[in-house]
Amino acid sequence: MRKRTPHALVIATALFAAHAAHAAPTSTFNLATGIGTGQSSDYSWDGWGILTVHDGADIEITGAVTGGKRIVIETDATASVTLNNVSITDMPYGQGTGENACPLWLHGGSTLNLTLAGDNTLSAGLYAPGIRCEDATLVITAASTGTLTAYGGNNSAGIGGRSGNGSGTIVINGGTVNATGGSGGSGIGSGSNGASSGTITINGGRVTAFNDGSGSGRGIGGNMLPYTQFTLDGGAVVITSSIQVSSITSQYLNGILFVGGTGTLYGNVTLTDDITIPAGYTLTIPSGATLTIPADVILTNYGTITNDGAIINYGGLYNYGTVNGSGTVAPKPVQDSPLLVKGSGWDYSGGVFYIHNGANVVITGTTSNERVEVAANATATITLDDVNITSSVNSPLSLNAGANVTLVLTGANSLTASGSSYAGLQVSYSYASLTIDAASTGSLAAIGGDMGGGAGIGVGGGTSVNWGSITINGGFVTATGRAGGAGIGGGAGGPGGTITINGGVVDANGGGVTGAPGIGGGSQSGQSTTVNIHGGTVTATGVVQSIGPGVNSTGNCSLNVNGNAVIHANSNTAPSTSGISKGILFHNTTGNVYGNVTLADNLTVDASQTLTIRDGAALTIPAGVTLTNNGIVTPADGSTVTADGTVANNKINGANAGLFTANVKDQTSVTLNAASLLAATGQDIEYAYNTVNSVPASGWQDGLTFSGLTEATTYYFFARSKADVVFATGTASGGVAITTAAATPPVITGFLFLPGGDLHITATNCVPGATYAIVGTTNLAQPFDIPHAADTADGNGNLDITIGKPVDNAHFFRLIQE
Q1: Is 219 exposed, middle or buried (0-12, 13-18, 19+ CB in 10 A)?
Q2: Residue 541: beta bridge partners?
Q3: 405 near 435, Cβ under 8 Å?
Q4: In 3D, which of 342, 337, 344, 331 has the Cα closest to residue 319?
Q5: pTM of the model
Q6: Which range is most confident: 391-400, 698-707, 742-751?
Q7: Rounded to an integer, what distance in angstroms lies between the CA atom of residue 361 and that of residue 307?
Q8: Measured between alpha carbons, how far is 254 from 250 in angstroms, rounded to an integer?
Q9: What proportions of the chain, in percent to the nearest 5, are helix, strand and coil?
């Protein structure tokens, strides 16, 4: 079976109007799994692929299947079915009546109330309709918010009859319905050569109906008498390749019908969705007819609109083709702007989109002829969605006195002021305020005018007017000033007002060589600026100042940093740190952590950069956050580093270790008192020694006891933090000199000597584990033989030796270590 694709819609629909709520079905069934829930009386499943819906059923059907699984509505039943992302394709060859090849068949006398949810496809096999409705009634409900695409097989309708048969009663009240007939079949209506006394009524929704281009099929209706009765009502938009219906009983009451690219508006139609008329298509609004475009709807014309009636335009009518005729367009005129504004609370005049109090609008498109201006004292929400505005006469987007705007960024947006001193986004008039919303996922590039010094995002504007405030809570913002204008802040001669950054990624560049900062006041400003940075990643670049006043300014700039922000300040002069209580500040390549900072976003330390966690400061890398260290990161003494997240590339330098002392020492071993780390990194400590006062390359150990040493020898002991997955090995401490004890002669505490008896000697202060022997002498120089006896000193250096029957003439004895 050949693969088929739906006809392209010539009316592009975007947003569906709200429909009446549809009560939850009492039963569900998944065609793919064959498993259902709810009322067993609602349906039956034969186990081979046929789901039969019974009288009184209210069932939601889901699942994608192929190869003959299908749905039937039993004879004379009245049932409610919701199709929710159902796909029935690759139906087998139809036998006899084509029953096996029909995805959804309404048996004789049945009535089906069909609600569409999600995207649904019903593709018939040979000689069967996508939905077979011949002597039955199909109602697609107004509660439908989804899409139905129905394909008929050879000689059969997409929705309606098979070969030789007409359609029953078909009513469409909502949803999006795309129906294509096969060969001689209609999109909606009869099969090939099918006479029909049925009716097709379209009261709502968006409907396309085509024959597949072969045979004698129609888009809507049939090709045999008596023809189908057709009714268009409810403001529906219908697109069909052709229509052949009864000229006597058919009614065109209310709606838009395109036949082969030629469209006619009937009655008074209010659009519920955005629509686009493509090039080559025409829409005629006859005298006495009215087309209403609500405030939140846009009609875009690339073809031709012949308006001999009336267009009531509260929303947007954007013309890239031709609009002619003797009719009227009010209250908003036809706009030739490629900039599209959707929503309520705006109007358009002389190339300016005026945003009023209470407005909530979405702006998209590209223009160099129009701009956007927010009315004085208006509170509004503006979403920029892939907007590109270049203006040579004013700021592309400006806020008048007292205006309060919440700006949401989606997609990639740019606002460029060219050839003037205006800001790319101007918030400079009498305490206006702009807040870039934290929910922003898109970007904004704002560029000031290059003559007179405009700011990228201007608070103070191009001259010394009263200033407003800017708050950035999210999004990706790049602001570039020109000729004395700050990236964010004042234009040349203007103050920066109050600038607060709580989140997002911000890159602000001061204008030219005249010394405007990335963030702050413009050059030669006489008023003060306040900059508060509490979050986000901020890069500010200026020639003299990165954050601060412009050159030749009498006004100052107060910088307050208290949060988890990361600030990159690139300039000749470092910003003042007196107002920094918490945050990370890089001045060019040198960075410092102030206060207790928890990284909110991934941070990269470049290869040329160093970052020091200052004494008393703390840096936390939480789980899910990565510090990529291409440079050097060092915890100063007295700092704290906690790494639950990831440290990539280079490790963080290990903490310094403090000095320590010996606990126990003797002739051959030393036990140290533990050292402590001077920064709280959580690392272990390791130790080593050398015979000279230099750090050894090897021999490091975790334990505190060193044995096998030489008596009366000076050793130098060192401590350092131990490397782990986050930290490198720390710098070793200075050498601590410790000398082992010298050997002392044993102290004999007593002996017993009786001629011919035993000799008993007790000694202390021996070397533990050493072996001692008793020798006898007639004088101190000459030994003489006595019965040899030797013993080993115990672990405390005590010795006890007994010799049986020494020689009678022994006068002297001494104890020696063997």
Answers
A1: buried
A2: 509, 570
A3: yes
A4: 337
A5: 0.68
A6: 698-707
A7: 27
A8: 13
A9: 0, 50, 50
